[in-house]
Amino acid sequence: MRKTLLALCLTVFVACPLLGDQPDGEYRLYLAFTTGGIFFSQPDSGDDYHILGFPHTTLYPPVTQYMRFDSSYAVGFRLGYNIAPQWDLETSFQYSPTHQRLKYPIFAPSGQQNFVYREWVDKLDVFNYNTNLTYYFVKKKVQPFLTAGMGGVTFRMTGATFNNVATSTTTNFAINLGGGVKFHPKKRLRVSFDIKDLVIFNQYFFLETRNNLTLNLAAEFLF
Hints:
The protein is mostly beta strands. It has one helix spanning about 1-15, and strands spanning about 30-40, 65-70, 70-85, 85-105, 115-135, 140-160, 165-185, 190-200, 210-220. It has one domain (about 1-220): Porin (Beta Barrel).
């Protein structure tokens, strides 16, 4: 993630002299509709998450339970305000429908000395909302930028348990840091692309800080 952000910054500084002039007209407010994806951090090869903080010795047989969140698309909107010549303040909301996968061991049929794994897949709704400060390197037709902010991520799990539907909701504090580029195809329209590191503290189910990746493409209407 750090290497990706560093490469983005270097690209911005190299490209700045090549960018065109800023389109005529000033704006204060913009409304954007976004689409993209959220990619949850995954365990290293051959090593799944050990969930809930239980040491291996508390399980019998002594094995690790496994939990994963599927990566998924995300849709939403954001509202921004130009507070200074090269600064925007914006608030955003995104929704992503995904799944959580829990795999843990159960004993094999009687007479066998080993055990097998069974996987449960539950519906997981993810709501991501943030307030960000965005800095533009240049005021031109093509505008590279950096952005940082904070907010929260709400996880809502829905699963079936003994013929009943159980729902649990958890909200975690989060920060994000990233950058991207905006392009003016028309005077009052911008197309935006960004990539961010979404850091979720005490993340749902893992109870630890996790780094996740978000990609977004947006159409921004300027007022």
